[in-house]
User: Fold these one by one.
Assistant:
Number 1:
Amino acid sequence: MTMKGLSAPNDLTIRFWGVRGSTCTSGPNFVEFGGHTPCVEVRCGERLFVIDAGTGIHAFGAHHGQNLPKRIDLLFSHLHLDHVTGLAFCKPAVLDREREIHTYCGNLDGASAAEALDRLFAPPLFPITLDMIPARFVHHGFRSGETLHFSDGVAVDTLPLRHPQGATGYRFRHAGRTACYISDIEHGEVWPEPDLLHFVRGADLVMFDGMFTEGEYPACRGWGHSTWQKGVDLCRAADVRQLGIVHHYPQHSDALLRDLEQQLQAAMPTAFLARERQEVVLPARARVPEPA
Ligand SMILES: [Zn+2]
Ligand SMILES: [Zn+2]
């Protein structure tokens, strides 16, 4: 037996390119955590997934340049503006005629993102339509809760989340590791909800929407977001190893977020508030089957 399945390229690797929620922010008080809206790179070994196309996808594209694969699978949590407006600015991908960008959307009763994106990326809101862009877009619709099966045999599980118009949570399993993306979500009266608890149970990493503090939350009830405390409650109940809080409130400065992170780590030492460009490597601990 070779050690191939245990070598570094088989790790499950997460990289945050945008961790700000609702709208981007900038300025001297927002340098450490960053200002881009949601975009997360997930690598199952070499295999690439991108979650959300907030403004962070511009930085993602600029970083990887021509090293991006010819086919990019982009999984939308949902289509609110902070999760889609960067799409046309992932330049190395969209300017390449050989490239296919496959989008996946699960919160529209099975419809794809095509119609919504065609409304956004069209004059007068945007100078051209997506079909005028050199790369080819292929839009897939599914129902949150279904498992996505890709042609290379990789599967990604999904879950509907409580959010205005709904959102989709994702679970990636690779080489004995599990990482979940649970954003955007608002906690309910019963917390953690049994289906969510089951979905994230035993995960190595859960990325969770902790946009508001518990003090801010009552004034923002119904807006579709949660708190870091609810993330800790979920991860404790589900035996999750690491918690990464995402979708930071645009007005939360670096100083405030550092303070919140101290409180968070007092409750759960392995938890953190995600920073732009931060990478989390979950080393492979199971042999990956050879491709058939
Ligand atoms: Zn959002
Ligand atoms: Zn949203």
Note: The helical segments are 56-64, 91-94, 114-120, 194-200, 228-237, 254-267.
Number 2:
Amino acid sequence: MKRYHGTLPGAARCRLIELQCDEAAPLHSAVALMTRWDGRRFAGLRTESRTIERRTPNAERQTVLEKGASYRYVQGQAIPPNSLCRAAWANLMSSATVPSKRRAFGATMRRDAWWTQPLFVFLGLATFLVYSTWAAFQGNHYWLDQNGANYLSPFYSPELFGNSPHAIFGPKPGWWPSWLLFSPALLVLWAPGGFRLTCYYYRGAYYKAFWADPPACAVGEPRIGYPGENSFPLILQNIHRYFLYLALLFILVLLHDAWSAFWFADPSGARHFGLGVGTIVLTLNVILLGSYTFGCHSLRHLIGGFLDEVSKQPIHAKCYACVSRLNGRHMLWAWMSLFWVGFSDLYVRLCSMGIWHDWRIF
Ligand code: FES
């Protein structure tokens, strides 16, 4: 059997595999062969019309692929929802051509500036990584209590141990090794960081931007093989569904922080409802992070129903529709929330350092 690769238009993580049959072969052996090539990422199969039925020596019915007939199937690097595969397939049946020749790394017939998107993704993510790492290691200027404000940087929330009034269990614990740098952010930042790192959208984005695999759709890639995310280390990306539970808890915590930011202390220590620019910054932060988290592919899968089937219960169907709506703009929410969570930390930090001043609206 010959194998041809092609990338599905409109489905960045899918590939079309076409198999050409040199000689008659039972359907199940072809499927087994494809499954072996593709591991558990076998996502969909269509046969062309030329299959025949025959009886095996022990009278079982067997579907056989005729000589010269072809199979096509969709291979998912990370399995996208089946509906996406189906949509991509429908799109493809009318339009796809399957190139049989491998392109050299970077070679393409595209005439547009395809490299701009990976370049901007690289710059955006690299800037955020550098800033957030620096901010996480600072261990100070992460809260603001001047003029009665009650702000906490989202990078440091929830603050388990620390010096601010927000610390749940008090100051740095005595058992913390003296040689080990302490910052409250390091105790919690791994959870939202892991959630983003394993996000389906970000995976596609940083695979392209950071290690050119592939550099862009229909552009030659550096590798010959295509193991996808079936093996170590990328198989660990499947942990995303578990990070989702943590991310949902973080949304609750940040919601609490945003609500606390509405309450300003007067000189006697009593708190009154008010609004400062920081309140708006922290409220917007939780709205954007919530829109990103509630549009997660894993949540959509979790909430939608069963394997290949949307739940018939109206409440499930409603939730599925809501998550799908957010999911349709997942990339936009991902970038807006990334930018704003970094800005929220910067805002609290600069106000706490006295470089900016928080404006109290009422
Ligand atoms: S897929 Fe992006 S957050 Fe889950």
Note: Residues 147 and 265 are 8 Å apart (CA to CA).
